[in-house]
């Protein structure tokens, strides 16, 4: 649909499809819910509005298309550190004042950083939307802080790394696994950053990252809840529309070279149990066009669900039950999409008396069994029915709707990607699942990580989290 706006706005003409129910779902959506609408301000900032009038609340999110993958070696973690610093004041707000104001409005707020995205959000009574839009726009363009404030917050981030990664043996294993799996891709670096990079980080590093990437054309405002799209657009123009336009920096491709042979990580750390993590390079879903890579990405997601998508699925039934079980727990997952390369993972905890090597072999054997014998139509229908139910239940969360729309924008996908995805997943056949199981799980595509447990220190005291963290 094309919409005509006032002459001072530059329209982004976009076709929108009503969020139609997935196959098997009751037709029609609740009358209080409407299709999302997308606009673009003259300075390049995207505005997306999703009305949902079932409760007098609203979610306001600012998504910046920048994350850990946009960092360079030597400054890993700067995207996440900068996310913390956006709570440290502007020309008109003091450090911490943003959060205090949102709380006084009866709302809640936080932020997050991933490999692909930095996001900031507030959930507030709908009639206080203008207040948070003013605050968020102010810190987007006027973020500033003293060097001493940066140094204090950097210590908070370091403690976050210690508590969430360095004190977590599996977290450390996955960090090492990513570093070995990827060579050219920036996904090899941890989002929180290497400790040596955090030790060396300066206020100038964060300020430069902020100036480089926090530009209107690299950001989107997503508002969902009890709101009127035209009113939201007027507020966005008032508070965000005056931000000067600047070009988005060029992003150079960093393609991952073809892997030739198994890669292995043997990682030792104090732990109660060993752990096995197998990562296989697989294609990502880049669009909904019918290409071999996109078709395979969808079939791999169905394969993951057949293996581990419900209670009593194949991995649990075959590996964790009975007197000869080889695992205390198992998982399978497929990285369907993202700005960088994706992985299919098989993980598990060996049962007492079983070795990590036995579990590794058992996990791979279950995939090979599907490659040899295929899957049943009953299995396919079971996972598809569960997905369809999930599409209905997710509409209960306004926050979830906003985050989902924001993710689609970051990936350059249409706003109705949830329904397009469900339609495509429902078309995946048993033969496609068998085919991807046969083609993507060879030795040359695998990086295997094993956690070898060391004795725990009986005198070690639990770490006390540092004050000031955002998450």
Automatic annotation (TrEMBL):
Keywords: Signal. It comes from the Bacteria. Residues 1-19 form the signal peptide. Residues 201-385 form the Peptidase M16 C-terminal domain. It holds the Pfam family Peptidase_M16. Its cofactor is Zn(2+). Residues 47-192 form the Peptidase M16 N-terminal domain. PANTHER family: METALLOPROTEASE (PTHR11851), MITOCHONDRIAL-PROCESSING PEPTIDASE SUBUNIT ALPHA (PTHR11851:SF49). Belongs to the peptidase M16 family. This is Insulinase family protein. It comes from Ramlibacter pallidus.
């Amino acid at each position: 649909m094309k919409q005509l706006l006032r002459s001072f706005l530059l329209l982004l003409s976009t076709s929108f499809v009503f969020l139609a129910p997935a196959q098997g779902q009751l037709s029609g959506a609740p009358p209080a819910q409407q299709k999302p609408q997308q606009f673009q301000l003259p300075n390049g900032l995207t505005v997306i509005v999703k009305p949902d009038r079932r409760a007098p609340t609203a979610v306001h999110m600012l998504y910046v298309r920048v994350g850990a993958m946009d960092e360079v070696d030597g400054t890993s973690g700067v995207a996440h550190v900068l996310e913390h610093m956006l709570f440290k004041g502007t020309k008109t707000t003091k450090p911490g004042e943003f959060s205090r104001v949102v709380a006084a409005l009866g709302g809640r707020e936080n932020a997050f950083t991933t490999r692909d995205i930095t996001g900031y959000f507030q959930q507030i009574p709908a009639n206080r939307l203008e207040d948070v839009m003013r605050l968020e726009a102010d810190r987007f363009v006027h973020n500033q802080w003293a060097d001493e404030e940066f140094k204090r917050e950097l210590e908070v981030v370091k403690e976050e790394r210690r508590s969430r990664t360095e004190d977590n043996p599996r977290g450390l294993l996955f960090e090492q696994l990513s570093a070995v799996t990827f060579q050219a891709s920036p996904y090899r670096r941890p989002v929180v950053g290497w400790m040596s990079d955090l030790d060396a980080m300066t206020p100038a590093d964060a300020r430069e990252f902020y100036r480089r990437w926090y530009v209107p054309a690299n950001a989107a405002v997503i508002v969902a809840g009890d709101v009127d799209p035209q009113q939201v657009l007027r507020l966005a123009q008032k508070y965000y529309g005056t931000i000067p336009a600047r070009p988005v920096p060029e992003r150079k491709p960093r393609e991952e070279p073809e892997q030739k042979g198994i890669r292995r990580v043997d990682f030792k750390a104090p732990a109660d149990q060993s752990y096995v993590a197998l990562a296989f390079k697989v294609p990502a879903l880049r669009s909904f066009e019918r290409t071999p890579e996109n078709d395979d990405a969808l079939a791999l997601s169905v394969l993951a669900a057949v293996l581990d998508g419900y209670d009593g699925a194949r991995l649990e039934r075959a590996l964790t039950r009975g007197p000869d079980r080889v695992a205390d727990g198992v998982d399978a997952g497929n990285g369907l999409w993202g700005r960088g390369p994706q992985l299919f993972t098989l993980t598990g905890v060996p049962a007492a008396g079983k070795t990590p090597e036995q579990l590794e072999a058992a996990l791979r054997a279950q995939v090979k069994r599907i490659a040899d014998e295929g899957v049943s139509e009953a299995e396919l229908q079971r996972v598809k029915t569960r997905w369809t139910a999930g599409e209905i239940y997710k509409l209960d969360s306004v926050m979830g709707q906003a985050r989902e729309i924001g993710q689609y924008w970051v990936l350059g996908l249409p706003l109705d990607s949830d329904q397009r995805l469900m339609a495509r997943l429902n078309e995946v056949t048993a033969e496609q699942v068998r085919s991807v199981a046969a083609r993507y799980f060879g030795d040359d595509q695998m990086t295997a990580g094993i956690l070898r447990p060391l004795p725990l220190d009986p005198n070690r005291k639990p770490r006390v989290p540092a004050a000031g963290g955002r998450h």
